[in-house]
Amino acid sequence: MRIRMGMVGGGAGAFIGDVHRRAAALDGQIELVCGAFSRSAENSSETGKSLFLDPERAYGSWQEMLGRERQRSSEQRMELVSIVTPNDVHLPVARAALEAGFHVISDKPATRDLSEALELKSVIESADGLYALTHTYLGYPLVKEARDLVAQGELGILRKIYVEYPQGWLSTLLEATGQKQADWRTDPERSGPSGCMGDIGTHAATLAEYIAGDLIAEVCADLTIFVEGRKLDDDGAVLFRTEGGAKGVLTASQVCSGEENNLNIRVYGELGGLEWHQQEPNTLWLKRQGEPARRLRAGVDQGYLSAAAHAHMRTPSGHPEGYFEAFANIYRNFAYAIAAHEAGETHDPLHDYPTIDEGVSGLAFIDAIIRNDRSGEKWTKVSRD
Amino acid sequence: MRIRMGMVGGGAGAFIGDVHRRAAALDGQIELVCGAFSRSAENSSETGKSLFLDPERAYGSWQEMLGRERQRSSEQRMELVSIVTPNDVHLPVARAALEAGFHVISDKPATRDLSEALELKSVIESADGLYALTHTYLGYPLVKEARDLVAQGELGILRKIYVEYPQGWLSTLLEATGQKQADWRTDPERSGPSGCMGDIGTHAATLAEYIAGDLIAEVCADLTIFVEGRKLDDDGAVLFRTEGGAKGVLTASQVCSGEENNLNIRVYGELGGLEWHQQEPNTLWLKRQGEPARRLRAGVDQGYLSAAAHAHMRTPSGHPEGYFEAFANIYRNFAYAIAAHEAGETHDPLHDYPTIDEGVSGLAFIDAIIRNDRSGEKWTKVSRD
Amino acid sequence: MRIRMGMVGGGAGAFIGDVHRRAAALDGQIELVCGAFSRSAENSSETGKSLFLDPERAYGSWQEMLGRERQRSSEQRMELVSIVTPNDVHLPVARAALEAGFHVISDKPATRDLSEALELKSVIESADGLYALTHTYLGYPLVKEARDLVAQGELGILRKIYVEYPQGWLSTLLEATGQKQADWRTDPERSGPSGCMGDIGTHAATLAEYIAGDLIAEVCADLTIFVEGRKLDDDGAVLFRTEGGAKGVLTASQVCSGEENNLNIRVYGELGGLEWHQQEPNTLWLKRQGEPARRLRAGVDQGYLSAAAHAHMRTPSGHPEGYFEAFANIYRNFAYAIAAHEAGETHDPLHDYPTIDEGVSGLAFIDAIIRNDRSGEKWTKVSRD
Amino acid sequence: MRIRMGMVGGGAGAFIGDVHRRAAALDGQIELVCGAFSRSAENSSETGKSLFLDPERAYGSWQEMLGRERQRSSEQRMELVSIVTPNDVHLPVARAALEAGFHVISDKPATRDLSEALELKSVIESADGLYALTHTYLGYPLVKEARDLVAQGELGILRKIYVEYPQGWLSTLLEATGQKQADWRTDPERSGPSGCMGDIGTHAATLAEYIAGDLIAEVCADLTIFVEGRKLDDDGAVLFRTEGGAKGVLTASQVCSGEENNLNIRVYGELGGLEWHQQEPNTLWLKRQGEPARRLRAGVDQGYLSAAAHAHMRTPSGHPEGYFEAFANIYRNFAYAIAAHEAGETHDPLHDYPTIDEGVSGLAFIDAIIRNDRSGEKWTKVSRD
User: Fold this and answer.
1) Would you say residue A374 lies in a domain?
2) pLDDT recorded at residue C368
3) Domain span at residue C254?
4) How many degrees, rounded to 5, is the angle at CA D272 between CA D269 and CA D277?
5) Based on the domain organization, do C306 and C166 belong to the same domain?
6) Based on the domain organization, do C61 and C170 belong to the same domain?
7) Which residues of chain A from 52 to 71 reach within 8 Å of chain C, CB to CB?
8) Angle between helices A356-375 and A114-126 (to 10 degrees)
């Protein structure tokens, strides 16, 4: 049977809820059966209707959803809760759902800040259910390939990591227009203590740590609010050093006028380098000094790619997979993990997915850059506990 | 309610059936309820199981599926048949399904050859059900944008159309190895009278006609079998002239060693040109002599794109949509058309989808290039009836 | 000593004369000592002055230049004549210069048409001087590399050649505005029997033949005058077959609005393919089915490039060389050939340059496509004698 | 008359001397008449011979060259000294040449360090001759365009500058192999107190300051020696703030294995952004939030480019100019400046060239990042006097 999922958030006007639903549907492992899509009961009900749900299962609040679903028969009731709300709601829903015996998959960041994330981590450790965090970019097959190439030693010892995430959509005071996405992301109450860096800097940090198989140990940061009237940083630049001895530069900005979602990473080791651009995710460059650069391309027919990449592709080369498919890889892998968990079997590590560890690490990064930026000291250590 | 779909073909080992299933699932408008996935009852049954279908609705043959589903209650029974078999099975299934009162969505080409397509067209004209043809590339939002820009006169009167579709996967006699995709595509019985041109040349022709809003009127072709032992063309090049007075070049090949699925089109008119590459489908170039080329990018936030493009996008700019999403646009639009049809309402023409007309036109193109290639005459007219 | 050069054509208002002068100067092997830069003595004199020439050596006509230079001492007099005039003047100057004992380097096409080219060829065969034709694109190091890779069998037997040369600058009746470049190029008297194809189609044909190491044997063409009032073709498309059994498509156009000088070539053989784009000339793609494409890059430090490429580069990788450097390679190689000739030594074949053979072949191609286009026959053989 | 130039450095085995010679020759304004090409008299003599110089004017030392050339007649003697030696020789030669009444054009950096640069600046201020510094990348036409667009306010107030310069050639201890370029660049005595940052970080800093029309005011740096046994930094990353209030990130590295000479810059202001890549120098991207990105392309026929760009291009669009042409723009502009100086005329500011101010600024940047890196303080002010 498909895994039955309920959703918190994702009503009309939201962006990411729709992404989660498509991602959950794509591989046919998960079925959306209920939701508390909005704090407005009417919005929730309308959303449920548009999704062809049983009207009784479009709830007016997540508390109601958890309570009522628990009372359903084991063949019917929701097994998994998907959290797609603004950040401030992540912790309470995840905690309540886990404590009620459900599995949880949550949009990132895991929580608003590091202390909340550590609290959630301890909840997870004592819960029976599983927890996944949708750090989308970790779902791309060529990101898996990059991680695998580094792990196999193809680059030798890593020296340099450059990761950048420029966007332009907050070049003006968009939140003043009532635009919903801008509104909550620039509000410390709902978003957390960082704006741009919390929103997309964490993506960049997590991607770097995932590919490098290494953790950011120390940071030196410069955070900025460029747009007058904004309450949180809309730009940041960070020098960093990893536990493994590599050095890096991480930049994220939402005031790079004209940029879309231009997440890029380059990693160099003693023996070569890798380059990946999220906007053209089906290409990965492998470079070595003195050799022609090799253009690795996604595709189920690409015999040269790793098992890690192959476990996350659906089409032959030249048929582009994108954002939904990367997202779906996380949902599918988590569905496999839940199925294994329920069956008492071992989950295949090829089907990896981000967990609270990535969540803690991302928020530890934010915590450290904020401390660094405020203190005036040059280097600040990242603390993950 | 979601539209209930049954599938013919798409069992284990097939490629395109899986694509159809994901495309149908992505927008939540269609539910797969049954299938005759293989001529092997066991394969069909196993496939149904992997898809979490009711075991009773994984049929051993399409004839059985049509017969048994007709007997189900109107709340339960399949409404739509998806045909994802090799080409030779397209006509018999489509005809039987339409005559049994079902809607049909079929993989391309519509049939093996022009005469079959014309026969199917007459079946469709007298049927109550609707018919759609999954010419995937017509589902891309920036292809819609290109068509719209041409239609709005942004390029002026069209002069030149260059469309090319190089692949490399048949550079060797792959069919001799038993590779399933190669096997039937190079077999005249199952594929029809043309190999490469029927398989991908029709994609190129249909894309050109769609964007230009014009039909290919005359062709001058050179078809080739490069790989010894092959039974059908694995390469073709065609000069053409359109009804509207443009001139063009269409090439398709499956022996361009190292190429993936590199469908590209460029169109030039008196005032400017357009360029689109399927492997990077979220970018469309608009060029005008004496001005900087403009890079149009897909995204729900791109205010400068047409309503036609906006009706077919799901993500903000910089979050790549790809092959499944284009495919899903055809399924979703067809679901909307069926819903409107059933409700006696008018279907919104923004939600267009390819029909038997595109099917006939594609096979008329193949018919003409084969006649031209065999006759030795320079120019051969395309006949669509 | 540097080789002393005189120039015919290239006065104020000309484009290509300036290119020739810079190309000749770049490698320090050639010194411009005189010129008949214009039919206007005043223009010629002014041009000479701007080039810091001895005022006595800025001549009012090429006849005068040939006559007066012959009378100079052997240490002083011009040794080489560079012809940079419109096409109609190529034959008379080249013939007279060769008959007067000078070496000749000429802009392409060699002459207006095939019969003139054959006449020139016989003059060259009986002259003592050498003759070079500046088919610029043959001077690019990665074009040399491509030719070498094909010759070494890296692609196996060639199957397909795609070469295209779209420009947009004649999208309107520019010649009606008095624009000098457009004026003579669209005038049959000065340009020859073909416009676009003679001007840039010959570049495409010559490039294809050079890289393939093969000759175009048969053509099937469609030539067009798109702009009303124009006297010569501004567009052409050609299917072709080579002596070696490959098939190809050649297109050239001057009405592709928005295109600059977008000469591209792709070549595929049994084992792989090559791709080169003139507008980014320092990159050459080498593709093989089932392997990552390799991006070969120009640079004196690229150990993997052939001797043929290395003989034509000046900078380390990443320091782009371009049009002048390609042009200069032809001048420098010809200077080496002249020096070897004068010294009675053998010229190193690595330092190759286009000769009258490329000139004849290009005009034989034009001759064949015009005959084909007019005759209505499908295939027309190319005759080179 | 052409300006007569002598060269110091650039004998057999050198790289940059050859570049300077070609750049000086390209526009026909300068004539190389003499040189002290090497500390080896034999090398110098051989080099002179290969350049077809008067054997008497290939000197064994720069001191000899300065002395002997001063004694020549004013029609004959060298007017301009080109310095293409390792950095340690820049100051003594430039000082002596200027004091002897010659003009000087020098490879960068101006000197080994800031104090030398300030000393040179005071020499220049009291000399009659002019001084130019070949910061090549400032010679590219689209860099001029970028600077002009910023100056015209097309981007609004600048917010962000990202400039990066990754190379890979020092990924190993190349200096231990005796490779000449690596040898002196990693030797503090000849190179100065910084390796990578002095060599290419200064290029990046100067490019950023030039395009922004602004100066780097504060830096926070992390410099590294990655390759064991190396004496100077082979990598650096710098956060910076400008006098005008923009923030930026500058990275330079010579251990990015597989990278060639990948200098890139992106600049964002309130209204839009610019992007330029040195390896494809004929394209400049202009982006604005909510509009298609515009691809500006070099070419004398591009009416939309500024006068600043047009003053530095030679070919129509699509005929790539590159490194030598950018270099030649500096030489030509300096030749124009010398001619104006000698004629007592005003030099046209369109023909700008880098001077000791850029030299001081680059070395002040190096001075500040070294101080910052050593001190442990977070931000260090750049001092230019």
Assistant:
1) no
2) 98
3) 140-317+359-371
4) 95
5) yes
6) no
7) none
8) 160
